[in-house]
Amino acid sequence: MRKSKPKKSILEYYNDESSNATEFRRLARNVRRYKNPSEINSILVTSAAKHEGKSLIAANLAIAIAKREEEKNVLLIDFDLRRPTIYSLFGIERIPGINSLLEGKSELYNVVHNTELANLKIIPSGRAIDSPSQLLKNAKDVLDKCKESFDIIICDSPPVVPADDASMLAPYMEGVLMVVMAGKTDRMIVKRAVEILESVNAKILGIALNNLHKTLPYYYDYGYYRYKYDSELSNGKQDKKQITKSGDANLEEKK
Question: Going from the N-terminus, what domains does the chain have, and what CATH number goes with each?
Answer without folding.
Answer: 10-234 (3.40.50.300)
